[in-house]
Amino acid sequence: MNKTMSEAQQSFDERFPTLSLAERDRRYEKVRELLDKHGLDALVLVGGGRDKLDRYLAKEAIAGAVVFPREGDPTLICRFNVMPLLRFDEAGKDTERWIEDLRHGPLPKRIGEALRSTRADQGRVGIIGLTSYSGGNITLNVNLWNAIQAELPEVTWMDVARDFEKMMLVKSPEEIRLVRRAAQLGEDASLAFLEAAKEGALESEVGAAATYAITSQGGHEVPPGMLLRSGSKWLIGPPEWGYSGEEPRRLRRGDLIGSELFACYGGYETQQQMHVFIGEPDAETLRRAATAQLANEVGAAMLKPGALFSEVYTAMQEVVLDAGLWIRGPLVQTVGPVFINSPMVVGPETQPELQSLPVPEHTPAEDDFEVQEGMTFALQSCANDGLSGMCLGGSVLIGANGAEELNTLARKLQVND
Q1: pTM of this prediction?
Q2: Bridge partners, residue 388, by sequence
Q3: Would you call 127 helix, strand, or coil by DSSP?
Q4: What is the CATH number of the domain that holds 353?
């Protein structure tokens, strides 16, 4: 049966959802509330970085800085002079733009011009780019920051990066559509990973299958890019062949291959901790997998509106540590965009195999906060026995009554026998 036009459009919208001008206006209202809260005349957001925060305000492929005044329309400033031309080629000319005022050239000079045009050059201005949760959105180096201050000597600057990032954590209904699409791409990538992870396959072939499942459907990935390891004893990280130029490892029976997938759509990130055993898993592998799975189940049950982030990760940690295992990465973190991580490197002192090895120092949680409806998290419980790793989990969306699991395959150890 042929689809009607409305059915075809609905199918297209589900595969390629986008954000409306109403969503832009909602965000701009939230920014103005932030300006009012701190008594600011304007905001300067220097974009780029892992989450490309400028795109939260501009929704552009063009990267740059946004100058957002208390009153009037914002300005988008490109770092690279060729970028404005992208608005006029065949791919860009019909795209709906959120910011009409597009400028290019040296950032300090153009930021100064934009602030002077709104008479904010002698006032209080918020700055984003100096600090960030997890450090991923620090975009201002010393030279650039000094040049901006020299251009605007009478401005009183206030770092509002963390307030801005926290503002982004609660997703609107439109944003949730993009999150769901990203999670579906992650599920498709997990299936492609599982199907490719066979005895005799190269690590690179398995990773490429997952990446293709994401990008071929209009999605994208974010740094650190491909995290992929295999063998009988390993911890998650980048593949050795990525920069060394050596032949990718070929999978053998008895191997465990794992990857942290970063499935994104429209700037919204989900994560899937996909692990596949080649052959019949041994008892210790199954024990680590069962522990990681249980820790995630505990976390999912506790992630409800009103719960404290610290309460969730503490309960998850207890599951892993009580099993005599240790934790390397965060067990749970906010995702897409903006990371707030639970503690990392917990319990390595209990592992005899690690005592003579360069184990990183413990990293405490970056913040504590109340879980709210509309937030998204990655559950990624790692349950490691010395250098033998295991990490399972997918992304969840917080609804009125608790966490909705958005992924299935990555929640348990998969087996290709």
Answers
A1: 0.94
A2: 385
A3: strand
A4: 3.90.230.10
